[in-house]
């Protein structure tokens, strides 16, 4: 099973971005996303942003992952 995690783009430099995953920031490749912009939410799998998503959807996924983790 593969999991993708939502995160918010904080900074972009070329094909790379700093993405915030509920307080943890990581470098992510955004070359697959045509409309990658600071402030947008993306789904990330294996270090690549694979889809843009809305804020409400991202927050719902965060909530579901926390519930599954027992937090």
Structure write-up:
The protein is of the alpha+beta class and 71 residues long. It has a single domain, classed as SH3 type barrels, CATH 2.30.30.140. The chain is 20% helix and 45% strand. The chain contains 1 helix and 5 strands, in the order βββββα. A hairpin with a 2-residue loop joins β2 and β3. The longest helix has 14 residues. The radius of gyration is 12 Å and the shape is globular. It starts with a strand and ends with a helix. The relative contact order is 0.23.
Low-confidence stretches: none
Strand order of the largest sheet: 3-2-1-4-5
CATH C-level:
Mainly Beta
Going by helix content, strand content and strand pairing, the class is alpha+beta
What profile does the largest beta sheet have? 5 strands, antiparallel
Q: For the residues shown, what is the average pLDDT?
A: 93
Strand content is: over 45%
3D shape: globular
Helix proportion of residues, in percent? 10-25%
Count of DSSP H/I helices: 1
CATH topology descriptor: SH3 type barrels
- Compute the gyration radius: what is it? 12 Å
Summarize the model shown.
The protein has 71 residues and is of the alpha+beta class. It contains one helix and five strands; from the N terminus they run βββββα. The mean pLDDT is 93.
Topology:
Elements: E1 5-13, E2 16-21, E3 24-29, E4 41-45, E5 48-53, H1 55-68
Antiparallel strand pairs: 1-2, 1-4, 2-3, 4-5
Keyword list:
carbon dioxide binding, five-stranded antiparallel sheet, 1 helix, about 70 residues, alpha+beta, HypC/HybG/HupF family hydrogenase formation chaperone, SH3 type barrels, 5 strands, iron ion binding
């Amino acid at each position: 099973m593969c999991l993708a995690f939502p995160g918010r783009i904080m900074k972009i430099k070329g094909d790379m971005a700093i993405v915030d995953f509920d307080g943890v920031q990581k470098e992510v490749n955004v070359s697959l996303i045509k409309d990658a912009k600071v402030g947008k939410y993306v789904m990330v799998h294996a270090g690549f942003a694979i889809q843009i998503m809305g804020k409400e959807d991202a927050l719902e996924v965060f909530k579901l992952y926390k519930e599954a983790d027992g937090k």
